[in-house]
Structure formats: structure tokens, C-alpha cells
Fold these 3 entries.
Entry 1:
Amino acid sequence: AAKAAGRNRFRIFDEGLRGHLEMRRDGERDLSHALAENGLAVWFQPIFGEGGTRIAGLEALVRWHHPVHGWIPPGEIVAAAARSGLSESLLRFILEQVCGAMQTLRADGIRDVRVAMNVSPREMGQLPVDEIVLDRLRALGLSPALLEIEITEETALDIEAVQHKLLALSGAGIRVALDDFGTGYSSLASLRQLSAGRVKIDRSLVTGLSASDDKRGLVQAVLGLGRSLGLEVVAEGIETADDLASLRHLGCPFFQGYHLGRPVPADQALRQVLARRTDAA
Ligand code: C2E
Ligand code: MG
Ligand code: MG
Ligand code: MG
């Protein structure tokens, strides 16, 4: 029986692996179609300030519903783009949707909601992200002060290639946020080298913090770091009212997570921003 089970397990694994490889090949071919034919979308998740009541920002998150394979995780999309030489097209596509959201906000008279986009370490290292982004903002007459670029600390591994780009971006007024803070080798040096003005505490430290002294201690330390270095701190991955309450109690200034708002299509996210305004007014 054990042998049969072992064989079955192997067969299942084998099929899973084959499926994965097929999906990879399809993925690379289909991604270029998706990019060309509006198969990709950018959704937005709200970031809240002021105790979790006011929307202070929107984070752009790429979405792809593949006709056969269903929802493809963003990491896979970014990796498939890299393998098939589509990284710049993908970056430009996302930037376009982000600029569209910034234009809509401006048209609605909203001048204090920043839009954030994620840029992978590879994209930051290999593409002229600073030129691409700044040229586009200039062409559309959009203020760099309303854009944020989220990077992760692996970006620091190629510091020679990225430092001048990050300086150009932050010098122009775009805020650089260090995402997933607290997961790896997050050092004070990398915060400085990367011109970060904001840190986002990783979900792994936030989810369940109300029930964990260890997590609370770590989050408290990051908040202290933020205060002493003049960095804004965002907690991401807030899934419960208890975690939100603990974060408020610790003095966390910005909040993001399913408990407060999930990623939604652009029109819906923009409606939420407006609705929150009229509520408060
Ligand atoms: P991230 O930038 O740290 O984004 C946060 C991720 O956590 C998003 O997943 C979001 O949907 C999810 N999330 C937000 N709140 C909660 C919560 O309360 N609980 C849980 N369990 N999850 C939550 P998503 O959209 O799947 O993105 C995953 C990662 O893929 C992102 O992590 C980011 O690193 C990358 N990514 C997403 N969009 C893009 C993009 O346009 N370009 C690049 N380069 N990377 C992207
Ligand atoms: Mg992010
Ligand atoms: Mg993150
Ligand atoms: Mg993450």
C-alpha cells in the first residue's frame, strides 16, 4: 500500500511538474498577447492614514486572469515578463494604469492621495526606471509628489546599478518605499542607500501581532526606527480588528490590509476614495 501510495504521489508530482512547465511556456507566449490585448489589469488596494479611517494612498497591484490557468500570481507575471524580454512593456503598462489613476484623482480634485507602484529588483537594476517614469509624468503633467515607488531590499544587492536611479526618482519628489521590511536583511544602511522615505512592515510581522509579544516588539522597534529616522511607516497585512487596534495603540501612522480594504479594480478603488471624502466632509 505504501509503495502504491508512493507511486501515486510520484505520478501526481510528475503531472504537476509537467503542468507547471506547460503553464510556463503558455505563460510566456500568452503574456505578450495579454499585454497587447488588455488581458492584464492593475488593481488598487487602499492605504489608510489617521487611525485607519482616511484613504491616504492606493497601491497598484498587477492582475492577470489567464483564460486557461486562471489567476496568475503577480510574481509569476513579473518572472514570465523577464524570461520573455517583456519587462519594459510590463513596467510601462503598469505605469500607464498608475498615471491614469493619478489623472482621475486630479480630475476629481483630490490632491492628497499618493499612488504607489511596485518595481522588482530586476526591473530596477536592468531598466532605466527613472527616465521611463519621469518622462511619462512630465509628458502627462503629473506631479512626482503624488507617486510612490515600492522596492524591496534585494534591490540593494545591485546597489551600483540602482543608487543613481533611486536618487533621481527621490530627487524629483517621488517617494521611495522599502516594501516587505523585516523579512530579510533589512539594514539601516540599505534604507539610506536606497533613498527610502517610507518603510512597509511585512505582513508576516503584522498578521496576528495582537496575539504575539514577539511580533509586537518587532513592530514597535520598526516604529521607533521610523520616528528617529523621519521615515513614514506603513503596516501591511492587517486582517483583523484586533491587529488594527494593537497597531493604533503602538502609534502606527499608516495601515493596509484585507480588514480595511482589498485590492479592487481601478474604478472601484477611485469610487472608494471619493466616498470616504464625502463621508468625512
Ligand atoms: P506587496 O507589494 O508586498 O503587496 C502586498 C500583497 O499582499 C498583495 O498581494 C496584496 O494583495 C496582499 N495583501 C494585502 N493585504 C493583505 C492582507 O491583509 N492579508 C493577506 N494575506 N494579503 C494581503 P499580490 O497582489 O498577490 O502581490 C504580491 C507581490 O507581487 C507584491 O507584494 C509585489 O511584491 C508583487 N507585485 C504585485 N504587483 C506588482 C507589479 O505591478 N510589479 C511588480 N514588479 N511586482 C508586483
Ligand atoms: Mg508593495
Ligand atoms: Mg509588501
Ligand atoms: Mg510582499
Entry 2:
Amino acid sequence: GKSMGSYDYLIKLMLIGDSGVGKSSLLLRFSDDSFDMNCTPTIGIDFKLRTIELDGKKIKLQLLDTAGQERFKTITTAHYRNAMGILLVYDITNEQSFKNIEEWLKNIEKHTSQPVNKILIGNKTDLGAQRKVSTEEGRKLAEQLNMAFYETSAKDKSMVDEAFFALTRDIKKRL
Ligand code: GDP
């Protein structure tokens, strides 16, 4: 039998996008099921873990937090190393964060050589009254980029698990 803590697959995921879009919050929500209204950026490369079960397989997810380094545009080869999936995140109340998705995509392409599955995330759907990017605009971009698209709220937990599971399922297909 398998010992405790064993797994069938180890999958490394990352969240990329502008500072403030909610990457740390989504990660925390997914890994620990908690939400911190005042999360302060930390220094260094931070991992969180969650083990999920998909189609009878135990998948250990290693979730990388860029910990504020996106601010300095210093997300580089070292961060992307071994990443198998990336959640590209924007904030639906921040148009610039949406426009910057294509820049982040270029950054990913520049710094990765391995195959990486990507998914587009519009976060903060609980702030509907302040929405600046429509669902349709998000969907269109995702279609252009040939990615799945989810709108999430790290605050009320809406669609967070769904997004992470969808990306993981895509990756598992090619393993
Ligand atoms: P990061 O810089 O991309 O890691 O963003 P953070 O996770 O640090 O979040 C930035 C700010 O947005 C924090 O004040 C969070 O509490 C807030 N935030 C993150 N996600 C959500 C969300 O889904 N809804 C709302 N209302 N606030 C959020």
C-alpha cells in the first residue's frame, strides 16, 4: 500500500498577473480555505500545497506565490522553472490589469521552454458594482489565446476550486 503523503503526480502551478489582482488571496483560498483582507507581500519564493484527487489519482499541487516580485517585473526563468500550469490573473475592476495579460504572456513565453498549460482568470467578481472588464471581453481574450476562462472571487470563494481543478485536469491529460 501507499504510505501517507504519497501521490501519483506532483504538479507545480503558478499565478501570474499584476500586483493587487488577488494572486495570493486565490492561492490562500485554494490551499488553506482562508482569506486575508490585509495580506502583506512577503519576500522570496513561497509555496503552498494541496493534494487533490482526480479520476482516482492523488495529485499533489505545489502552488507558487510570486510574493510581490511582479511589482519589479523580475519574474524570470528561476520562478518559472518546472512550472506545468499558470493561472493568468486580472482584476475585473482594473482595466490595466486586463490589458497587461498579453505582456505577462510574453514574459512567460520568454522565460519558459517546457510545455505550460494556461488558464485566464478574472478575479474579484464580488465587486460587481465596480466592474470595468465585462465577462464577454474576458471570454473573447481567452478564446483568442486558446485558453479556458473563469471569473472568480477569492473573497466569496466563487469558482476558485473549479479554476484550479480545470487547469490541473488539462495538465494531467498530457502526463
Ligand atoms: P496579489 O498582489 O495579486 O497577490 O493580490 P493580493 O492577494 O495581495 O490581493 C490584493 C488586495 O485585493 C488585497 O487587499 C485582497 O484582500 C484583495 N482581494 C483579493 N481577491 C479579492 C476578491 O476576490 N474580492 C475582493 N473584494 N478583494 C480581493
Entry 3:
Amino acid sequence: MPSHRVGQSGGTDMPSRPIVLGFSQLGSESDWRNANSQSVKEAAKEAGITLIFDNAEQSQRKQFEAIRSFIQQKVDVIAIAPVVQSGWEGILSEIQEAGIPVIIVDRTVDTADASQYVTLIGSDFYEEGQKAGKYVLDKMAASTGPIGIVELKGTEGSTPSIDRGRGFHDTITGTDKFVFLGSEYADFTHEQGKDKMRSLLYRLGGDIDVLFSHNDDMALGAIEAMEEYGLQPGKDIVIVSVDGTRKALEQLIKGKINCVVECNPLLGPNLMQAVNEIMEGRTLPKRIVTPESVFTEVTAEREISSRKY
Ligand code: GZL
């Protein structure tokens, strides 16, 4: 397949054939991830872009294998949703040597050379953590403390886990009435969220007043663990989560979750626009941030009917 690149002058010999995009998706660990994949597939079809999609099942090694396959196939653009932040310099150099432009999607990568990718399309996870922390400050304003907080963290080393945690902790630690009792990595999955919440309850039981979960799937698992333990989620323990899936909003309406910070997975249209602009030789911003909101018991009813995922 002849490869077409952005011309030296910045112009490009637009291919007479459909643009080919290789997308390394990190996995299918959560409803958010599946909605993200669906958005990319639908947007590619809508844009007439040929999509080569690979699901790495949360393995960075499998992402590298998929990317090397994209290079061999001489795709026009490579998009990567990186499972963790570190370890990408080598593979990004291989792509650069092949002359293929790169778009980073959703999470980010650590690299000393920002020229190794054209743009990053995704959320501001630190701000999402701050929003979660602000909700807890408001919700617990009348309490004198001590208020025991536990945390279910996403995939270790992933941008959302690192930055949501930083944003939340930076917001909460301003007052001494909050006590962080413990945190567990639960890999953004429902199953591990339930399992790790069980162990936190076993260790800390009635001392837990607040759970901050880095995503909805882990929060939904934690709700099951709390009910097994004989506690009322949303009442005995305040729950704040991130994503905004339909299942989480349903629990929000039932009062079993108290706040869901939105993280928008529908990045497909932004990605395809960026691909087209690269192929047209246009300059893109280094960062494209998706707009997001916060859902509480008050706004959930209004939002749930419009949720696509
Ligand atoms: C955030 C995304 C996270 C979601 C999880 O943009 O990377 O990964 O919050 C998903 O649900 O597994």
C-alpha cells in the first residue's frame, strides 16, 4: 500500500484512496473504555477513514506489537491510548523513523521529546480529581471530623490514576479534619473494585466515611461490597466517582452514589478531525481537551436520558 505523508512543504499529496488509521486501544476494562472504542469506530466509518483497530487487553507489550504491525502496514496515521504513562520513548522513536504522525488519545505518555507526537486528545484528569475533592469538602462542610477517606485507584502508572489522585489529595489536604485511611489499586474494573473494597471494609469497617473511586466500574463493585458488609452506600459511606456512565447515574438517582464527575469517552469525532487535518498538512494544538461536567443527585435525572453509554 503506497504510503502518503505530509509533504515537506506542509502540503500533502492527499491520497486518492481512503486514509488508513492504526489505533492501539489499551483494553476493554470498563464501560467507559468500551464507549470510547465504539465512538472511534463509528467516527472512522462516518469520516470514510479505514480503521485498523487493536485491543491490547491492558498490556503495554501488546500495544507495542500492534504499533509495529501498523508500521509494517505503512498506515497514514497512528493513534495510541496508552495503558500507562512510562516506557513509550523507544516505540515512539520507531514510529518517528518510519515517518508516521502520532496522535495520543485519552491518557498521556512520558517523553522528553514532544515532537514524537502531534497532539494529545483527552481530559484534564487533575481537574477531575479537584472536582471530586471539592464535592467532598462541600458535602462534609457541617462535619467537624475526623472524616475517614478511602480511595480505589485505577491502573497503577496510568495518567487518570496519577492525576485524579493528585487533584483530589491536593484539594482535600487543605483541612485537617480529613484522614486518609487507605487506598487500593483496582485497575478500573468492577471485579477488583468489589474485591479491594471488601478488604478495606475488613480492615477499617465503620471508620470509613468517604470513598473516592477513580472510575464508575470500581465504584459499582464497591457498592456491592458495602451492601454485603451491611452498610448503606451513599448514606453510611459517601461515594464520589468519575466517568458518568449510565449505570453510575442510575445509582446516583437511587442515592447509592453521591457525586459522579464526568469524563467524556466520546473522542472519536475529535480524533478523526485531527487525522484529516494532519493529512491536509495543517498545524494542530499540542493538546485538545474535551469539555466535561459534574453530576449529583440533583442533576442525574436530567442527564440520564441523554447518556450514550
Ligand atoms: C479516563 C480513562 C479511564 C476511565 C476508566 O480517560 O482512561 O480508563 O476513567 C477507563 O473507566 O478504564
